[in-house]
Amino acid sequence: MRALAVGRDTEQLSMAIVTPPLESIRPATPGQHAELEVLRQLAGGLSDDFQLFHSVDWARAQAQGDQHGELDIVVVNAAGDVAVLEVKAGVVDTLDGGLTKHYQGLAKDIAQQAQWQFGSILHRLKQEGLDVRLLHLLVLPHQRVGDDGTIRYPRERIADAEECQDLPGLILRRLGRGVPSHQQARV
Questions:
Q1: How would DSSP label each residue in 130-164?
Q2: Does the reported pTM lie above 0.70?
Q3: pLDDT per residue over 141-172, tens digit each?
Q4: Closest Cα partner for 162 from 186, 145, 176?
């Protein structure tokens, strides 16, 4: 399957590599449908310099009990640099300087969730001796945020509905294609 690149010379680019394959993903909730649409857009808009991983489960053992969760979309460029995308469908509350999403009457602090994810992933990468860049991006495909962000969540780490119109371009600008590690020594 190929995606078309738009520019002076239209050329064929291969799609980003998606795991699990797009055709195997069966969304059941509005949030999962939004994640799939974001994943499709990224797959079609990024070349095979990128790998996309959807719904990545994680677990962390702690003395007070195990913690489990899921990363919505993980984008990896050719150099191994990572962008973790936390997709939130629908409306997110930006009151009181934070970001809150309501699920069946319960409020979830998105900024706290994102900070925990970022810190845990960064810690794990360092533990493994992996020297890569790590970005964490909150993706709000149905909501415009404005220019200020919130006091607990910086604007540069949010892709709102307007920026989601060219999410592959945003990823390219922020993460870059990367240089494969076997080519870095030659550069």
A1: ----EEEEEE-TT----SS-BTTB-GGGEE-TTGG
A2: yes
A3: 999 887 766 667 788 889 999 999 999 999 99
A4: 145
